[in-house]
Design brief:
single chain, alpha/beta, polyphosphate kinase like, Endonuclease, Chain A, ten-stranded mixed β-sheet, eight-stranded mixed β-sheet, 21% strand
Length: 701
């Protein structure tokens, strides 16, 4: 018999140890999480609450997302393997192991994508009298029309290439549609090659609408690939065509630039020429392509079976987005809407007068992007405005913002544009943009080599009542009018003196040289943003169960920020994360993250806003930002987080966040095992879709 005093004191103090937040098992792999986001996009094609054409477009967006995933992420892993620079993330997965898992998952997803296309979407389009007319179904009139189209539009620009010792395998452009053709017989020179490559002309549309007068009603579309298949024999007269099969090669499209460049623009122009011909990373072939031809292509591109994707349908599904413009069926697409302009601006002829009364907060696309454009237009024409400075990451080819900057420069104002030349896939457009701006008298700066300038800032200096007044625009998204109609993003227009001073100092750092300047209100990467976010998370941790954190971002991968959120959860803080895409944090782990809840919103618009909310014991703080919770954003880019101090606007932001947290139909909840489960209303529960609620709330003001 033992008494209480007989129990060893060390045993009295024993408790279950808390999970180690550094352990690899508590981090999801970045690339696999990225694939899961792409899959959630694909699932929108099955959601019948979306109009049919939009469902088809979601299927195409999945293809576009997967293209970029292979071009950048898979290409990067293959580069690590090629040059022996394998690196392991917090999850501890080795590159070779990861490439195998990516291949397994991607094959499953792409197989499901074509199953959805062939067995769900195309039959649904047929029921709506929208037809993708296959070769076997062409009427004699349609076949004749296709023949003439081939001879008039395709044959003059197509360039078949026979393969023989004097015609080696051609260098094919990244993601281009091509055909491998099996031939029998000898050509005019007596050559007997057996194979040829036919690159589809990139200048031609991949979908062509048949004339109504040769169809039996409805909308009738034909694939360019079908036209080329049907008339391959005209490309090789006198030869027997034994087979013709589509294929498409995805190449490494990431640009590698040294940090010690003397001329960034010249180096970038050189790299852009090579992007179209980087190393192969994925081969898509028609599923009826004979194994020997598929293996021949794999050898040519130095790929293995792991990188081979056999598809039952067109190999370039992204081009199916053209359906929206070829088919005039508004009943099969989302109804248009008119973004509103807040009364605060509508009632003021001069936007600067409105901003002086109260800062202006806009949520695009529900609220118009026009006030941001007008902010610059009026500044360009206003004789009291002396200087304009702006960062440009993505703007679009026909940008009204760019026109306003050039107009301001022509009128003699001091205009400076900090252009990020390395905005992925917009590099060529930004080089052209830089030239146009320089020709009009704008001072163009390319930011800081080694740090992409991703911050969204405008500074306008205006003379008022004998002194200089600064006005600023700070945003979570790009200065791209097209994106502002498709992405959710916040814009803040303010004349707060401290914000104006901070933005001015940031432009000084970007355009000049010197030590980092002391900033009062803004958090800015790569200097203070990372540290400040972690400090704010740790401050909530000190409040324990009274702490509250809400973050709405596009991705969370930074290990230090994740560990800080784990600490907050262990302290009892309620942590609610709305993360559209990649999330490496593992929620719901007892003793580590049971107080963390993660959801992803996928809907009509691309969720792009970045907001950070901290309860702060009843004195809440909310920040908008250009930065996601990623290492590259917080440590390797120029980014900005800005406080929304106005209580009315801050409360509005908190309300918007609560709307997203209440979504019960377009939200997907991350489970502790890494899977996502889509929310659905309980029986008798009202359906709440955050984007629909915001659209209704803001466009009916």
């Amino acid at each position: 018999m033992t008494t209480e005093t007989d129990v060893p004191k060390t045993q009295e103090l024993e408790t279950d140890p808390l999970p180690d937040p550094n352990a690899s098992e508590y981090y999801f792999n970045r690339e696999l999480s990225h694939l899961q986001f792409n899959y959630r996009v694909l699932q929108q094609a099955m959601d019948e609450t979306h109009p049919l054409i939009n469902r088809l477009i979601f299927c195409c967006i999945f293809s576009s997302n997967m293209d970029e995933f292979f071009e950048i992420r898979v290409a990067g892993l293959r580069q690590q393997m090629k040059y022996g620079r394998e690196s392991v993330g917090p999850d501890g997965v080795l590159p070779e192991q990861l490439l195998n898992e990516i291949s397994r998952v991607a094959h499953d997803y792409i197989h499901e994508q074509y199953d959805i296309l062939n067995n769900v979407l195309i039959p649904a389009m047929e029921k709506e009298n929208v037809h993708f007319v296959r070769r076997r179904d062409w009427t004699p009139e349609q076949a004749e029309w296709v023949r003439r189209y081939f001879e008039d539009e395709i044959l003059p620009v197509v360039n078949p290439i026979g393969l023989d010792p004097s015609h080696p395998f051609p260098r094919l452009v990244n993601k281009s549609l091509n055909f491998i053709v099996e031939l029998d017989g000898k050509d005019a020179f007596g050559r007997e090659t057996g194979m040829a490559i036919v690159p589809a002309p990139r200048s031609l549309p991949r979908l062509v609408r048949l004339p109504d007068d040769i169809c039996n009603g409805g909308d009738n579309l034909v694939f360019l690939s079908s036209m080329i298949h049907a008339h391959t024999d005209e490309l090789f007269p006198g030869m027997e065509i034994k087979g013709c099969y589509q294929f498409r090669l995805t190449r490494n499209a990431d640009l590698e630039l040294e940090d010690d460049l003397e001329d960034l623009a010249s180096a970038l122009r050189g790299e852009l020429l090579s992007r179209r011909f980087g190393d192969g990373v994925r081969l898509e072939v028609a599923d009826n392509c004979p194994p020997e031809l598929a293996h021949f292509l794999l050898r040519e591109f130095n790929l293995t079976e792991r990188e081979l994707y056999r598809v039952h349908g067109p190999v370039n599904l992204t081009r199916l987005m053209a359906v929206g413009s070829l088919v005039d069926r508004p009943d099969l697409s989302y109804a248009g809407f008119s973004p509103v302009v807040p009364r605060q601006i509508r009632n003021k002829e001069i936007i600067f007068d409105a901003i002086r009364q109260q800062p202006i907060l806009l949520l695009h696309p529900f609220e118009s992007f026009t006030p941001v454009v007008d902010f610059l237009r009026q500044a360009a024409k206003d004789p009291q405005v002396l200087a304009i400075r702006q960062t440009l990451y993505r703007t679009g080819a026909d940008s009204e913002i760019v026109e306003a900057l050039m107009d301001a420069a022509r009128r003699g104002k001091e205009v400076t544009a900090v252009i990020e030349l390395r905005a992925r896939f917009d590099e060529a457009e930004n080089l052209e943009l830089a030239s146009r701006l320089q020709e009009s008298g704008v001072i163009v700066v390319y930011g800081v080599v080694g740090y992409k300038t991703h911050a969204k800032m405008i500074l306008i200096v205006r003379r008022e009542e004998g002194r200089l007044k600064r006005y600023v625009h700070l945003g979570t998204g790009n200065y791209h009018a097209g994106n502002a109609r498709l992405y959710t993003d916040y814009s803040l227009l303010s004349c707060d003196d401290a914000l104006g001073d901070d933005v001015n100092k940031l432009f000084q750092q970007l355009t000049g040289m010197g030590k980092a300047l002391k900033i009062k209100k803004l958090f800015h990467a790569p200097f203070t943003l990372h540290r400040k976010l972690i400090e704010l998370v740790d401050r909530e941790a000190k409040l324990g169960e009274h702490g509250h954190i809400i973050m709405k971002i596009n991705a969370l991968t930074d290990p230090e920020l994740i560990r800080a959120l784990y600490r907050a959860s262990q302290a009892g803080v309620r942590v609610e994360l709305v993360i559209r895409g990649i999330c490496c944090l593992r929620p719901g782990v007892p003793g580590l993250s049971e107080n963390i809840h993660v959801r992803s919103i996928i809907g009509r618009f691309l969720e792009h806003t970045r907001l950070y909310y901290f309860g702060n014991g009843g004195k809440s703080e909310v920040y908008g930002s250009s930065a996601d919770g990623m290492v590259r954003n917080l440590l390797n880019r120029v980014e900005v987080a800005f406080p929304v101090d106005d209580r009315e606007l801050a409360e509005r932001l908190r309300g918007d966040l609560e709307t997203y947290l209440a979504d019960n139909c377009q939200s997907w909840v991350l489970q502790s095992d890494g899977s996502y489960i889509q929310n659905s209303p309980e029986e008798g529960e009202e359906r709440l879709a955050a984007q629909s609620l915001l659209l209704e709330r803001l466009t009916t003001k």
